[in-house]
Amino acid sequence: MTKFSRIIQGCMTWGKWGKQLSEDQMIGLMKYCIKQGITTFDHADIYGDYSTEEDFGNAFAKANIDRSTIQLISKCGIQYLENARPENKVKHYEYTAKYIIWSAERSLRLLQTEYLDLLLIHRPSPLMEADEIQKAVEQLKNDGKIKAFGVSNFTPMQTDLISTKSNVSVNQVEYSLTQHSAMHNGSLDHMQIHKITPMSWSPLGSVFREEDTEQTQRIKKVLARMTEKYNATEDQLLLAWILKHPSRVHPVIGTTNEDRISNAVKATKIALDLQDWFELLVASQGHKVP
Question: Which residues lie below 8 Å from residue 61, measured CB to CB, with a gap of 6+?
Answer without folding.
Answer: 112
